[in-house]
Structures are given as C-alpha cells and as structure tokens.
Amino acid sequence: MSSSQFKCPKCGGPTKEVAAGTYCYKCDILLDATGQEIVSKVEPRASEKPPAPPVGEGAVWTPIVFLGLMILLGWVFGWVLGLVLLLAATLYVHYDAKKYGVESHAWLTLLFAIIGLPLHANELHKLRKAQQTGQVRTLVEPTAKPQPSVNGRQVADVVKPTKFCRECGAKIPRDSTYCEECGARLA
Predict the structure, then answer these.
(1) What's the pTM?
(2) Cβ neighbours of residue 144 under 8 Å, at least 6 residues apart?
(3) Inter-residue contact 103 to 123 (CB < 8 Å)
C-alpha cells in the first residue's frame, strides 16, 4: 500500500493508506478520504460525555432526608449538630453531583440549605426521568451472565482491544504479532 497525502491531525506524522481508509500508527487512528478521524483506539472522544450511573429513587430523596434531619436534629439538639449535618449535606451534594454529572449546588447548600438541597434533588429527578425515557445514556452495571465452560472449567468472556493491520487495514487484536487476514508481521 502507498503512503497517504494526509498528515495525522493529532500528531502531524505521516499516514499510510489501508483498505479501510488512511491510518496513523503513532496515534492508532483511522482517517477517512478527507483526513477526518473515523475511529480512535487510544482514547475516547473528549466531547463525548461519559454516561452517568442510573439514578435510583433513593438517590433523589436523600437530599430531602438530609434537610429534614438538619431541621429536626438542629432544633432538638442545638445548633452544633445542625451545623455538622449542614457540612455533611454540603459535601454529599458536591460529591453526588460529580458522581451523576449534574450541576453542583454545594455552595448554595452551604449558604441556604433549604434551597440547595431541594435543587439538588430536582437535578437528580430530572436526570432520572431523562434516563428512564432514554434521552440520556446510562452506565449500566454488567449483569452476571453464565460464563462459557470448556471441559467443566469456566472461561472468562474477554473482548480484546483491537488495532488495524499496516498492510491490509484489517481489524485485529491489539496484542497480535501477525495479521490474521494477510499474514503480515506487525511488530
């Protein structure tokens, strides 16, 4: 195969034409005929937001429970316990917002807990509804599926990362030394 007229958009290095398009071996990306990236094996796209974990009903109600406990225990046992719960609620809102990828109302919670905690609960409620209707991708925990067995022993179902052959452009396992399609040596 011949060298390509494109320089890699990431590293500026030379590329090579393969059957699937134009390939940069240094960055491990495949380019189309215009030089735009088709497939990247090194890193996920920065513009793509990672999916949030599923928001349960309990996660939505936890900020409201925090608010109720702050009011009740602060009133019954004094302002010191209420202040400790306020700080705990602020930290909870901060880390919970990071976990689910929603707007953090931590400072508002610290200054005005009666406003910040319900706002955080509302953000989680909106995310939960968007996840239920399919408007937002959800990180789904893998379910335990039966593993295939060979001679009575369990075999892990492992999907290996892939790369492209330098000669023919075929998609092959990343740890391969030879191409499975054309037999070219890759290392």
Answers:
(1) 0.48
(2) none
(3) yes
